[in-house]
TrEMBL record:
InterPro entries: Tam41. The lineage of its organism: Eukaryota, Fungi, Dikarya, Basidiomycota, Agaricomycotina. It is an enzyme of class 2 (transferase). Its cofactor is Mg(2+). Belongs to the TAM41 family. GO terms for biological process: cardiolipin biosynthetic process; CDP-diacylglycerol biosynthetic process. Keywords: Lipid biosynthesis, Lipid metabolism, Magnesium, Membrane, Mitochondrion, Mitochondrion inner membrane, Nucleotidyltransferase, Phospholipid biosynthesis, Phospholipid metabolism, Transferase. It comes from the Eukaryota. Its main location: mitochondrion. This is Phosphatidate cytidylyltransferase, mitochondrial.
Amino acid sequence: MLSVPDSTRALLEEIVSSFNAPIRYAFAYGSGVFDQHGYPRGETGEGRPMIDFLFAVTHAAHWHSINLNQNPTHYPLHARWLGSDFVSSVQVVAPGMWFNAYVPYKDVTIKYGVTTVDNLCADLLYWRSLYMA
């Protein structure tokens, strides 16, 4: 595991715990989490890289149902209209992820992908799409 500053770790934990829907496993990745040359560090707002997450959940339709009620603005309008069954059916299509991007959280912007624990394990074990692996 790569180390991150305590302030970043606290922010990541705060973001994940802000979701009411049950997240079985979460990890953050990319330039918004780890120092990378060419990206500002410690700045907020404009110019700071988006913080990327992957959430593994047990039941996608249930998770999206709860999350659509808590965070409807995270989803595009058509997904709000069509509901969690639509979102989870689209999520099944390879690579098995649903992404919500450009989500404001306090003074940062996040993107999170939702997949099932089974799909994540299958990709890690069998490299089905290599998207998550």
